[in-house]
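hey can u check if this looks right to u? its 242 residues, i copy pasted from the old doc so theres a chance i mangled smth
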Amino acid sequence: MKPEPLRALIFDFDGTLADTESAHRAAFNDAFAEAGLDWHWNETLYTQLLEVAGGKERILHYWGQVRGDTKVIDAGALAYTVQRIHDLKTASYERRVHDGAVQLRPGVQHLIDSAFDAGLRLAIATTTSPVNIAVVLRSAIGLDWAHTFQVVEDAATAPRKKPHPQAYLQALQRLQVRAAQCLAFEDSANGLRAAIDAGLPTIVTPNAFTTHHDFAGALHVLSDLQGKTVAELRSWHASAQR
């Protein structure tokens, strides 16, 4: 059988395209203080909470840990409070991005530019909110970042969180390519599982919060994408089909 050509790259966002998690953690703590809560997520606790995909889901999970069964609380009041905390967190995160707290990971910008110039289609498949994506990529790439990433699946369009493969499956559908024609890029075990379940060969670049994860099944595990070329990606993609 003739090997499939590489036609598209699909990237996770938080922790993969950009070093965002430290800024997210700080923004959560800002929001807790502004909401009058005595919560504080240190790095160890936040690393554990990252096992829960989604910011609002993470807040709700922690609420259950520190305040007991959330089912005894009026559902409407709980949802309102969680949304308010998350809104405060998003505003703080945006301020931090504008202040330069978030940067693309090493090698990402060059690889994106090279892949785009080579005619590969680029997409994002993530569980984060669209505002978080836009604020970082506007700062890092410019106002025309959506021209670079032709497809974006996020918390608004793909609400089923990783490790569910919804974001990847929808990205493939919108890109109009088969999984065998793509490479995925992830940083976490949940993300890797989502990509693999969508049929995608996956390159993992762990960050400080995910180095302890199990990446069995990854095509490659790299410290970052510094110096990686489209030619290497094509070679790795071809090897995944043997």
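The chain has two domains: 8-19+103-240, 21-98.
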